[in-house]
Amino acid sequence: MNIIGIDVSRGHSQATLINDDFEKIQFNFKHNRSGFKQLSTYLTKETIVIFETTGVYSVQLARYLRENKTKFYELNPLEAKMRMATLRRNKTDVNDSLKLALLGLTQLDEVKRSRRRYFNPEYEPLRILALRYQELIRQRTWEINHLHSALELSFPELNDIFPCIRSVTALQVVRLYCHPDFLNGLTLKQMTDNVYQPISKHIKRTVVAGYCSQVWLAAKDSYPAIKADSIKIPIIAAYCDQITAANERIALVKKQLIRLATSLPEFKLICSIPGTGQLNTALLLGFTGNLKRFDNYKQLDAYLGIDLNRYQSGQYQKHDRINRRGSSAGRGVEVEMIISMLRNKARIQNHLVDYYYKLKEPPYSKKNLVALVACANHLNRTIMNLVYTNQIYDYQKASH
Asked: pLDDT tens digits, residue range 156-201?
């Protein structure tokens, strides 16, 4: 059996081959057709390849090995670092590739157990869309923050009336009346008509009239830092257009996410838990992949970084904290699921909501974030149980 350890870099990789006679062969190849053809000369049916995940740089290598039907193990960088740790620090690409190859000789069984990876093509588009959705949310947040900063100069009161300017009404009001001078000579009815006409199919007139009344009254006492003819005014309008376009892109990706996720067997099971929601369920599956690759909920906890990090030495014992080493995006989705359940507690029956308020009562009296993470742990238990038993959520059967 040949073992090849590969240290992946941008556009090229350093490899070390250890064959049955324990001979060491080191070579370098590029991530293109000719480079992978060079790599193929060292591959046999019994070859095992080991390398670290390095973001987008290792995806090309993984695809080639998968299509070439070569057995490979893609290690988490943290796991690889811990397994290859030595007293002497000597980090080079050549040494790293050699250490990865040696893992195949000395710790192959442990690597197999810890990296029981199932590559399912149906989850890959969902993962890409989940990352795209997260990216669009960050971009929109950036634009909203800059819009709020600009409004502090032109019409500060709008930031109090619209704490988060992303709704159709808020964007239309800010686009038309981002400076109090634009309301001079207008009646409240005229202002409401101007705002309501372009968005009439999206929202009720009474809601628009309520916001317009607040803006109209605030404009009477507002004293902005810039004049109505400032160059900053068209920039504010541009921010509104960018946020509107971002909303449309987010809505499109959201529809694609849910449509892809509905074809997966776990989607219906997780959505049966009241309060999880279709979007959050699709995002969670995008960030975690095939849930059946986890043997139990503790492995899912560790993947998401909500497993406990305990430290005790002698008489000193540190307070328990979560590791936060896993998928921060997946962890955030689960917390959002719990918050959604709490928000809809009056309309749903959910044992996780019961557990949250139990933690908040004496003698526990847990802080909000601690209770949310504890509920996320219970959520993982519930999800893994539903997935492995292939059953719909039943409040009466859930543990309280």
From this structure: 999 999 998 999 999 999 999 999 999 999 999 999 999 999 987 7
Q: Which amino acid is at 289?
A: G
Contact yes or no for 226/154 (Cβ under 8 A):
yes
Distance CA 51, CA 37 (A): 18
Say what the pLDDT of residue 32 is. Answer: 96
Alpha helix stretches (DSSP H) within 272-322: 278-288, 297-304
Q: Alpha helix (H) ranges present in 68-123?
A: 77-83, 93-106, 108-114
Please choose, from the candidates 34, 38, 32, the residue with its C-alpha nearest in 3D space to the C-alpha of residue 4. Answer: 38
Rounded to an integer, what distance in angstroms lies between the CA atom of residue 257 and that of residue 361? Answer: 38
Torsion on CA atoms 54, 55, 57, 62, rounded to nearest 10: 80
Amino acid at 176: L
CB 154 within 8 A of CB 224: yes
324: number of CA atoms within 13 Å, CB side? 2
**What is the spatial distance between Cα 375 and Cα 367, in angstroms, rounded to a whole number?**
12
Specify the residue for token string 């670092």: 81
Residue 21 phi/psi, 5-degree rounding, is -90, 10
Question: Shortest CA distance to 29 belongs to which of 7, 46, 53?
Answer: 7
Q: Confidence band (pLDDT; 50, 70, 90) for 252? A: very high
Beta bridge partners of 308: 322
Q: Return the CA Rg of the chain.
A: 27
From residue 152, alpha-carbon distances to 146, 148, 165, 303, 363 in Å are 10, 6, 13, 42, 45
Pairing verdict, β 48-52 and 71-75: parallel
Residue-wise pLDDT tens digits, 94-135: 999 999 998 888 888 877 766 555 557 788 899 999 999 999
Which residues are paired to 49 by β-bridges? 4, 72
pLDDT, one tens digit per residue, over 318-348 is: 888 888 888 899 999 999 999 999 999 999 9
Strands 12-18 and 24-30: antiparallel
| Residue 181: φ, ψ to 5° | -65, -25
Neighbours of 239 (CB within 10 A): 24
Residues in the chain: 400
Residue with tokens 């149906």: 122
Of the pLDDT bands very low, low, confident and very high (cuts 50, 70, 90), residue 364 is confident
Q: Which H helix or E strand runs over 66?
A: helix 59-67
